[in-house]
Design brief:
Blueprint: E1 2-7, H1 11-22, E2 27-30, H2 57-70, E3 74-76, E4 80-84, E5 90-94, E6 98-106, E7 110-112, E8 128-129, H3 132-135, E9 143-147, H4 151-160, E10 166-171, H5 180-187, E11 192-196, E12 198-205, E13 209-216, E14 222-226, E15 229-232, E16 236-238, E17 268-270, H6 282-307
Parallel strand pairs: 1-2, 1-6, 2-3, 6-17, 8-15, 9-10, 9-15, 10-11
Antiparallel strand pairs: 4-5, 5-6, 7-16, 12-13, 13-14
Helix pairs in contact: 1-2, 1-6, 4-5
Length: 308
């Protein structure tokens, strides 16, 4: 029996673990993959306070992980398949066991959204990628397409110029959602060119990617762009596949919480990218993790007072 089980070891989950364990709670984090979440696969995080020169995402998350271990957080590397949340004892069913806790923090994060065009699934891992840090080195001296107009698309596009001969950023609008400093850096990079007001209709290839077919939004003209790889950054979807109706979510599947990060179920909290929040950054995930852990402490203290 744990005081609290945290689902997910991204920045929100790791911070929640640190605060919970430091507060004297018996805490465990259940994570399918390596600690750090999407942040761990980011080449450089420039907007996390305290690092004026930026910091490598894996390095930052590794520090979070070590700190959680130092405070006594237990890590269970298994896949969460189901939650049973009714009653005072919450249960988490993994692929090999059932874990029990008095409270749960869901901090499972989000995953890259699929573009949903022909060729995407066929060439996934054969030229189609969602992680420039993971796969950029495979495209040394080659031409790649980046799809999207947010921070991830622009920043990862700039990162890809370390390897690629040319980076073409395809965006469906004229304007960008990315920070101006990132846009300026991309526009000043001679290896980057833009295809604006254009959408990717199909990813082309035989055994590997050879290009994309785009449609110009204003004219409807169809063109093909030769490319060796396609990196897709068109948003995220919550990692909520283990939530089967008990926890209230919005129409996109993100968990709804109040200002104290409690869900519609007493003793169940959500933190970080998996919840309905206007901003998904490492800094906000850290804040969520801290608050969720403190709220769990409060919940367990009040619960103890009632039963004693």
């Amino acid at each position: 029996m744990y005081d609290v089980i945290i689902v997910g070891a991204g920045p929100a989950g790791l911070t929640a673990g640190i605060y919970a364990a430091r507060g004297g709670l018996k805490a465990a984090i259940v994570e399918l993959a390596m600690p750090g979440g999407q942040a761990a696969s980011t080449e450089t995080i420039e907007n996390y306070p305290g690092f004026p020169g930026g910091i490598n995402g894996y390095e930052l998350m590794n520090s979070f992980h070590k700190q959680a271990l130092a405070f006594g957080v237990e890590f269970i590397f298994e896949e969460v398949q189901n939650l049973h949340l009714e009653g005072p004892v919450k249960k988490i069913q993994t692929n090999s066991q059932v874990l029990e806790a008095q409270a749960i923090i869901v901090a499972a994060g989000s995953k890259p959204r699929l573009l949903g065009v022909p060729g995407e699934e066929v060439f996934r891992g054969r030229g189609v990628s969602y992680c420039a840090t993971c796969d950029g080195a495979f495209f040394k001296g080659k031409k790649v397409v980046v799809v999207g107009g947010g921070d991830a698309a622009i920043e990862e596009g700039v990162y890809l110029t370390k390897f690629a001969e040319e980076v073409i950023i395809v965006h469906r609008r004229e304007g960008f959602r990315a920070a101006q400093i990132a846009i300026n850096r991309a526009k000043d990079n001679p290896k980057i060119r833009f295809e604006l007001n254009a959408v990717v209709e199909e990813i082309l290839g035989l055994d590997r990617v050879v290009g994309v077919r785009i449609r110009e939004v204003l004219s409807g003209e169809i063109r093909e762009i030769p490319a060796d790889g396609v990196f897709i950054y068109v948003g995220t979807d919550p990692n909520a596949q283990f939530i089967h109706g008990e926890i209230a979510t919005d129409d996109r599947g993100y968990i709804l919480t109040d200002q104290r990060l409690q869900t519609n179920i007493a003793g169940v909290y959500a933190a970080g990218d998996i919840r309905n929040t206007p901003l998904r950054q490492v800094a906000t995930a850290v804040g969520d993790g801290a608050l969720a852990a403190v709220e769990v402490e409060r919940y367990l203290s009040e619960k103890k007072e009632i039963t004693s």
